[in-house]
Automatic annotation (TrEMBL), chains A, B:
Domain of life: Bacteria
SUPFAM superfamilies, alphabetized: GroES-like (SSF50129), NAD(P)-binding Rossmann-fold domains (SSF51735)
Cofactor: Zn(2+)
Name recorded for this polypeptide: Zinc-dependent alcohol dehydrogenase family protein
Transmembrane segments: none
InterPro entries: ADH-like_C, ADH-like_N, ADH_Zn_CS, ER, GroES-like_sf, NAD(P)-bd_dom_sf
Length: 338, 338
């Protein structure tokens, strides 16, 4: 089959690789109907994460179950499924505690930007739609594989509550989904930090009541003004850099929690400030599977349309161009069709 | 009046200083009946915090209200009161959110190891007992000024729940009070990390179900064994050093929260581990006033006796010896009687 591989920084190729096969009786093989490029894929692309030259890349996809192992019971051939980027048995002690992303029998998709993906613990990981979804639902369903579930996790971790204020740091696809999550959870004021007009527009459609175009101290000042000098009740940190984390803690009110979902790179936490103002930090790798039933219902009922984060759709052959577009911020998020 | 002053590392003196006086109409002057030395006082004592030579030191005390400002309504002359180490108006936006330690009109006691203390926002800060307490209640009441409320805050921040497991890192007075708090809150297993027999004994009296004498990797291994390989549901970090913080995160299960109340010194957080395992950090300066009514009730009803952390009582004249005893870990916590 064809799948995307990475060879060096900015060297992305679509190559022939061996077809994935059932390796354990709990596996399934999914034919990818749509995959996409994640903000976190840009870390190795930019050479900021180590690269295993020639390895496949891509962890988000939706598709149709092509083959199942002998012990798979709940998922059937022909099911249309959302593939959580981290897979889980959904029965271990960590899964039962809701942290499916720390499953004791974890698996990861690595051919989401390819034609087929092997999923371990198919019954624990996959969630099927009720019949074949319409094509226009595809982008939103695809976001449930990672980006919408991750934005949702940021809001959960930050403790967004009805009537409260939420600030979202980061206007990437995850940040925008964080805006949507905070809005759905009933935050009265949802402040999006963004300097890019097309992203601001999506943030507003996702429920942002305020958009702040400044950065750093300027953004902090603006949030202070919006919140009557108090700071935000909940802060969603959706980038993972030192600067974004500083801003997140800078806008948080005493007693607030920063929910973080951006893989941290070069972050030094303002521990004294956290201590002095009782600002907590929670979050991490999103337990996608835990949120899937709820999010799937929100999408299929039409209450949310997170698929709007895809502002570019390319055939899989053009995956390298997709990376370039996201790297240069010409695209928010690129959907790939095999 | 006489009050304790610090001049340089290990240079503690009892000196004559000006009597505190009402400066604002919301102030009160409290005659100190009992004060004490805090673990955090050892930071400047050991030269690890800057010292303002000749300044008074000591922030924990209980006593009798001697004088009140013209706007003080709820507190009266002659009341026996607990003085929270950080004072608050109990009406500002942060106080109303429960973070009284980030009051917009904050005050700090600095002559708790002296004969009198000025308290700002007396109505917001002080909580009076119902009549004069018996002498044998004094130590427990004194712990409510800081150490018991701080241990309680660690347990609240860590999210201790009935039936769960809690690990307490630190066997100082705060850590021991954290054991007591976790036990009162209904944790089924409360694991105290301590290598010192007298402290282990108090931990057991405070409800520790398990005592682990190891440190670092050894302690982590022991906790893993106690928790069936899972790790603790809640971790109370009551020291504030890099090593104690590492241990705290090392024993936390995925999805757990580390509640931290030890002023951080030289701490670098294991951010990748926190992210990968969804382990949060919460806590900070304890909002003592918020917990006072509940804790006062627990003490006066005899349900808890946190005063057991005082294993030494000295006349105020011997305050320098008190510091030495705590510095050398000959005493857990020293009570001072003016």
């Amino acid at each position: 089959m064809r799948a995307t591989t990475i060879h060096a920084p900015r060297d992305i190729r679509l190559e022939d690789v061996p077809d994935p096969a059932i390796e354990a009786p709990t596996d399934a093989i999914v034919r990818v109907v749509a995959g996409c490029i994640c903000g976190s894929d840009l870390w190795p692309y930019r050479g900021e994460n180590p690269i295993d030259a020639g390895s496949t890349i891509g962890h988000e996809c939706v598709g149709v179950v092509e083959e199942i192992g002998s012990e798979v019971r709940d998922v059937r051939r022909g099911d249309f499924v959302v593939v959580p980027f981290c897979q889980c048995d959904n029965t271990c002690v960590n899964c039962r505690a809701g942290i499916t992303s720390a499953c004791e029998n974890q698996g990861w998709t690595s051919t989401g930007q390819g034609e087929y993906a092997r999923v371990v613990h198919a019954d624990g990981s996959l969630v099927a739609t009720d019949g074949m979804p319409d094509d226009d639902l595809l982008p939103s369903l695809l976001t449930l594989s990672d980006v919408m579930a991750t934005g949702w996790h940021a809001a959960v971790a930050a403790g967004v509550r009805p009537g409260g204020t939420a600030v979202v740091v980061g206007d990437g696809a995850v940040g925008l989904c964080g805006v949507l999550a905070a809005s759905v959870m009933g935050a009265e004021r949802v402040v999006a930090l963004s300097r890019h007009e097309p992203r601001q527009e999506i943030a507003r459609r996702f429920g942002a009541t305020d958009v702040v175009a400044g950065r750093g101290e300027e953004a902090e000042e603006a949030v202070r003004e919006i919140t009557g000098g108090v700071g935000a009740d909940a802060v969603l940190e959706c980038v993972g850099t030192g600067q974004s984390m500083d801003t997140a803690f800078g806008v948080a009110r005493p007693g607030a929690t920063v929910g973080f979902v951006g893989v941290p790179h070069g972050v030094e936490l303002p521990l004294r400030r956290m201590f002095g103002r009782n600002i907590g930090l929670a979050g991490g790798v999103a337990p996608v599977r835990r949120y899937l039933p709820e999010l799937l219902d929100l999408v299929t009922s039409g209450r949310i349309e997170p698929g709007l984060v895809f502002d570019s759709t390319l055939p899989l052959e053009d995956v390298a161009e997709g990376y370039r577009a996201m790297d240069e911020r010409r695209a928010i998020k690129v959907l790939l069709r095999p």
